[in-house]
Each structure stands twice: as C-alpha cells, then as structure tokens.
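Protocol check, entry for the methods section draft. Step 1: assemble the input record (protein sequence plus ligand SMILES). Step 2: submit for complex structure prediction. Step 3: store the structure tokens unaltered in the notebook. Ligand used here: NAP. Step 1 record:
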Amino acid sequence: MKKINWGIIGLGKIANRFANDITLSKNAILYAVASRDRDRAKAFSQKYNVAKIFDSYEELLKDPDIDIVYIATPHTFHFEHAMMSFKHGKHVLVEKPMGMNAEEVTAMIHEAKARNLFLMEGIWTRFIPATEKLIELLAQNIIGDIISVKADFGFKADFDPKSRIYNKNLGGGSLLDIGIYPIYLSLLVLGIPADIKAIARMAETEVDSYCAMLFDYANCAKAMLESTTEADTPIEGYIYGTKGYIKLHRRFHHAKTISVHLSGKEEEIYHMEYQGEGLLYEIEEVNQCILNNQTESKKLPLSTSFNLIQIIDRVKEKIGLNYL
Ligand SMILES: NC(=O)c1ccc[n+]([C@@H]2O[C@H](COP(=O)([O-])OP(=O)(O)OC[C@H]3O[C@@H](n4cnc5c(N)ncnc54)[C@H](OP(=O)(O)O)[C@@H]3O)[C@@H](O)[C@H]2O)c1
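Step 3, stored output:
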C-alpha cells in the first residue's frame, strides 16, 4: 500500500512531538522538514531520520514527492503558509487555530476546495480514544439531558513580550493558544452558542492573559470556560446532565481517564491510554482521508473549524482583543 509522504514546516515544540508520532505510523513517512535555520533542520532530520531538509518553507513545498504538509508555525503564519502550500498543490494539516479569524479560515477552506486538496485543523485531541469514548457515552444519553459544560485550561508562562505566548505579532494570548480547547469541547457537546459573555485581563502586550467565557444555548444549556497563561489550573472538563456528570480528568483535552458519575450510583472509570504523544490518531485519520481521496475529515470537518473560529471571533469582540 502507498505510504503518505509528509513534510513539516516550522520545527518548534509541537513539530517535535508530531515527528515522534509519525515514526509510529505504518502508513506514513516523514519525508522532509523545513526550518528557517538549516542547522535546526539538520538536527531535526537526524533525530527523526528524515530524508530531505530545506532552509526555506517554499523550497520544501516545491518538492514533488511530498503529499501533505504539516504547518507548525505560530498562529499568525497559518494562513500564509497554508495558502502557499495549496499553490504548490499540497494537502495541508495546519496547527490550531486554523487561522487568525473567520475571514482567513473561510479563504483557506475556499482555496482547498477550489483545488480539490485536503485541509484539516490540528485538533489532534478529537481523535484520541478518550474523545471517542466521550462521544460514545453522549450518544447513549448516559447522563440525561446536558445542562452544562465546564472546562479550564491554564498554565503559568512568565511574561516575555517576545514569546509566542505574549507577542501579539505571533498571535499571543491564552484564548487562541489554549482557550480553543475548552471552546472546542463546548462545540463538540453543545454546538454553537446563541449568546456569549466573556471577560478578560490583558497583558502589557495587549493579548489576553486570562479569559472567562459564559455561553448560553438555544436549549438553555450553558458552558463555563476559562483560559489563562497566568497560573497553572486543574485543566479538567465536566459535562453535567440531568442524571449525573462525566469528568474528563486532567488534562481534559487529551484525557487518559474519563469517569461517569450517575446520581446514587458508584462512579464508573474508563482508562483510555494512547500511543506515543497522542498525535498518532490524528496522523492516521489524515493518512486514511488522503488514501481514500477525501478532502476533509468526517470527524473534524471544515465546518467545525469554521464554527470554532467564529465563536473565537465573538469572544475576541467581547474582550476587545484585536490582532489587526
Ligand atoms: N496541537 C497542540 O497540542 C499544540 C501544542 C503546541 C502548539 N500548537 C500550535 O502549533 C503552533 C506552533 O506552536 P509551538 O509551540 O510549536 O511554537 P514554537 O515552539 O515557537 O515553534 C514555532 C516554529 O515556527 C517557526 N516560525 C516561523 N516564523 C516564525 C516567527 N516569526 N517566530 C517564531 N517562530 C517562527 C519556527 O520554526 P523554524 O525556525 O524551524 O522555521 C518555530 O520553531 C502554534 O500555532 C500552536 O497553537 C499546537
């Protein structure tokens, strides 16, 4: 069977974790990597046994043997790098958030569709066993009618105006970097909110270092979500229903344990281990889509990425977060 040849552009933290998991895939080869720094590309290629290195992202994209590009650059470059990849006829897996706003995401989706190329946002947490289990439990209506979703994601990042976390030019702020995970959970479980309330605290660089969100849904369900780069928080997820609740244990977005707590019953615990860094499941989903000539994933369709960024845009508006 044909193996999918992957290229990676931007060799930072997540690219390393991703490369590790490609080596676990039977359907994929990490064929080429590109960095702005040739020495970094060389060291990376030696670590993960990569055949080709480039010191220019565009030169990698010109390589005819690459099937798909994984874009692991800071948020503000996702649009530019995805569009450049499409121009060279490459399928794209782009890190989250797919773009900086709904306009960028709309244009990316349009371009991928026009060229009949695959596009997906790198929400790898959608594909891990715990998320599949959660979806199965919710489909069984095990906790009754859902009344609310509660999730937090916070880690303490010391203030550095140049870092990706705080630098506005790199798309800094907690909302886009980690707030996206609680929001994705709410979208998965409850859909698109009818009303959004949000408050934030801004860092000196005018990006949010704390964001609290309250979503209200047409069926009266609620979501209470938080993200912050000021403190380490529990990083837990809860789904409350009329018959009990489901807990996604720390770190909820890539949980290895889920527990179901039904009123008046013993808790039921599911241990859901995953292989490698957990990114393998996302990689296999993409491999299968490409092998089957699908231009989007059924599990993480482009409509989900569009809905996600639209919700984020609404939160940005409420908290006065502006990247223009
Ligand atoms: N899915 C996840 O779990 C997860 C986790 C972490 C991050 N992410 C996402 O992945 C993206 C990268 O995050 P990261 O934590 O890997 O960041 P990082 O360690 O800072 O790496 C980003 C890489 O982008 C490249 N780059 C290109 N232009 C750049 C510029 N002007 N400034 C800085 N870097 C530039 C650099 O690679 P070269 O110098 O090699 O070209 C750099 O190493 C972000 O969008 C983030 O949201 C996802």
